Amino acid sequence: MNELEKVKELQKLIEEANNIVFFGGAGVSTSSGIKDFRGKNGLYKSVTDYPPEYLLSSACFYKEPELFFEFYKNNLNSLSVEPNIVHKYLKKLEDKGKLKAIVTQNIDGLHQSAGSTNVLEIHGSIYHNHCLKCSKSYDVSFVFESVGIPKCSCGGTIKPNVVLYGEMLPEKALNKACLAISNADLLIVAGTSLTVEPAASMINLFKGKNLVILNDSKTPYDSVATLVIHADLKDIFENLKA
Question: CA angle, 64 as apex, 61 and 68 as ends, to 5°?
């Protein structure tokens, strides 16, 4: 099948399904202007002085917070970014009662900005921040508008509630995501290389009828998928009807 025929097949699978779960990675937000991580023009390609895994690690946060926040505030601020066609399509699919959950590896909050409600953020969110000393919550603007290391009124360091390298995934969101995937009859995986663990292994929990993978490059799970489309997500979703 050519690409257009594959999109028509995806449309058919969506129309036949009753319990759809969408599992998305960084590629979902690239059309909004947010860089992915491991893509050809990804964020990691522009880093030279330090390994990117270190700059976004718990080790860097606690040992060199100045370095961490310089990188974090320069590269992960999505406050002025708007949802794209993928986010908006999923909202429509949720409104129809077909899409039961969105499992996302993204921390940008764009699914919620588009109006989706059952969003399971397994890597956390830039929109939630707390003081390590007194646990006081701070909004996202306070963190990104701060100079240097964001500090609480009590003097403690404010930590974004995002999952850094070396940290465990949030148990509550992870459990809900696993349950949603295991109950789905159609799982659409999009914009992720499926190489980051333990998130990638969550695909193994799917026992439903059809697994669809949408990504601009090959993934380790292509061989077991019902349908695979290697193309830009914008081009795919422009040809889908909710």
Answer: 55
Q: Which structure tokens are listed for 120?
A: 């399971």
One of 87, 123, 130, 230 is an active-site residue; which one?
Answer: 123
pTM of the full predicted structure? 0.93
| Domain 1-33+82-123+168-242 in CATH 3.40.50.80 | no
123 included as an active-site residue = yes
Residue 48 has pLDDT above 70, yes or no: no
For residue 23, count CB atoms less than 10 angstroms from its CB and return exposed for 0-12, middle for 13-18, buried for 19 or more: buried
- Beta-bridge mates of residue 23: 103, 189
Neighbours of 16 (CB within 10 A): 11
The residue ranges of every structural domain in the chain are 1-33+82-123+168-242
Q: How far is CA 190 from CA 44, 74, 77, in A?
A: 20, 26, 22
